[in-house]
Amino acid sequence: MRGTAQWLPASKSISNRALIINALAGGTSDLHNLSDANDTQLMLRLVNSNDRVIDVEDAGTTMRFLTAYFSVTRQAKVLTGTQRMKERPIALLVDALRALGVEIEYLEKDGYPPHEIKSFAGQKVQHISIRGDVSSQYISALMMIAPTLPQGLTLVLTGKIGSRPYIEMTVALMKHFGAQCTFVDNKIVVPHQAYRPAEFTVESDWSAASYWFSFAALAQDAEILLPRLSLDSLQGDSKIVEIMKTLGVQAVLENGLLKLTKTAHQKELHWDFTHCPDLAQTVAVICAVKGVTGHFTGLESLRIKETDRIAALQNELRKIGADLREDDTEHWTLIPTTSALPTSAFFNTYKDHRMAMAFAPLAMLMDVELEKPEVTRKSYPNFWKDIISFNVPATEV
Ligand SMILES: O=C(O)C1=C[C@@H](OP(=O)(O)O)[C@@H](O)[C@H](O)C1
Ligand SMILES: C=C(OP(=O)(O)O)C(=O)O
């Protein structure tokens, strides 16, 4: 398998932060290479929308960041989304905003969208404690609005902190646009200050890149080139380089492109996904078919993403004779396939882009049919176009 993933998207996490901060900085920054992911295209459109009802579809960051943004910019809005978005909790963020002085009401079920932002009379507190183990997106949302608050904001994160690199990414983006912010241990301090407009170029998306590591892992022979990725990235999902080394893929930067080639793989993988939850599906599927036993922790947050990703993985892995066994609430064992793979299989995707993209590379070994392949538009709209350019046969039925 040889070629370049020409349509690899820019990071949606970085793009969505840049768009929120740019809006708070007056909207005049030059932002280059924004992601074409639906989550970012939604953010681009909705952040300046005059509509009262804001439909974020299934975009988690867009929902959480806009809830904070519309609150501090005093825009009365109703935020809603898909049925699944109405099942993804938002209470911790709403509680924090209410403590700050924002009037927000739930319109259907307490703790979940849709919700209505009514008013913000003025900052009531400077100090907020918030759990760190549910979603870092609530924390990033509060951090980005913090410089605009008259008293600034101190956040104390309680319990285990998940997705920490995404919080560090928020710090880095805030700094790029002129706002100081410190994040030490479990404490984040943001003084009141003004953002400055700045030029910014978004790098490629490491989570999207992870699927090309999967193709390389399953190919007989591979030389895959990935554009605009840096190894010391703001994105925690660049950890895929380390993980996939164990699974038989070597990655080196050559002439500005990341080159993936084959190397020997090991029989076991111990990995904690606490700080890179979006890689779990990619890695589980590759372990399953390469005979690698996975000893995993840090999968808890997968249950509240686009679908319950633990249940979805368990259902679909069983179709190829593998399993993801829950040993206790914190430990999972990936039991790989020991028998021959079926010659073909149909995989359900649960309206989750990452289910589709994690299982697609199995096409290197068997005939794969995927339910609603268009779900990839959430983060990687040209995924199928990229696949076809590598001569992997893909047909839309
Ligand atoms: O801040 C972000 O851009 C994200 C944070 C992570 O979510 P959690 O913090 O909910 O784990 C990640 O799964 C999501 O895809 C993007
Ligand atoms: C979890 C994800 O996105 P979000 O939470 O922003 O919907 C994801 O892209 O895998």
Structure description:
The protein has about 400 residues and is an alpha/beta fold. It has 2 domains: about 50-195, UDP-n-acetylglucosamine1-carboxyvinyl-transferase, Chain; about 205-390, UDP-n-acetylglucosamine1-carboxyvinyl-transferase, Chain (Alpha-beta prism), CATH 3.65.10. The protein is about 30% helix and about 20% strand. The protein contains 12 helices and 20 strands. It has helices at about 10-25, 40-45, 60-70, 90-100, 135-145, 165-175, 205-220, 240-245, 280-290, 310-320, 355-360, 385-390, and strands spanning about 1-5, 30, 55, 75-80, 100-105, 115-120, 125-130, 155-160, 180-185, 185-190, 200, 225, 250-255, 255-260, 270, 295, 325-330, 330-335, 345, 365-370. The strands form 6 sheets. Strands 1-12-14-13 form a 4-stranded mixed beta sheet. The chain has a 4-stranded mixed beta sheet with strand order 3-4-6-5. A 4-stranded mixed beta sheet has the order 7-8-10-9, covered by helices on one side. The protein is globular. Phosphoenolpyruvate binds near residues 59, 60, 278 and 306. It catalyses: 3-phosphoshikimate + phosphoenolpyruvate = 5-O-(1-carboxyvinyl)-3-phosphoshikimate + phosphate. It is an enzyme of class 2 (transferase). Its EC number is 2.5.1.19.
Tally of DSSP helical segments: 12
Strand order of the largest sheet: 1-12-14-13
For the biggest sheet, the summary is: 4 strands, mixed
Question: Which CATH class of the largest domain?
Answer: Alpha Beta
| Amount of beta strand | 15-25%
Report the count of strand segments: 20
Write the CATH homologous superfamily of the largest domain: Enolpyruvate transferase domain
Q: Structural class of the secondary structure composition? A: alpha/beta
CATH fold-level assignment of the largest domain: UDP-n-acetylglucosamine1-carboxyvinyl-transferase, Chain
Shape: globular
Give the uncertain stretches in residue-range form.
none
What separation lies between the terminal Cα atoms? 24 Å
CATH architecture of the largest domain: Alpha-beta prism
Helix share, percent: 25-40%
Average pLDDT for all residues? 97
Count of the domains: 2
Q: What is the CA-based Rg, rounded? A: 21 Å
Identify every distinct bound molecule in the structure, by name, code or SMILES: shikimate-3-phosphate, phosphoenolpyruvate
Quaternary structure annotation: single chain
Domain Enolpyruvate transferase: 8-47, 49-386
Pfam family, one: EPSP_synthase
Catalytic activity: 3-phosphoshikimate + phosphoenolpyruvate = 5-O-(1-carboxyvinyl)-3-phosphoshikimate + phosphate
Protein name: 3-phosphoshikimate 1-carboxyvinyltransferase
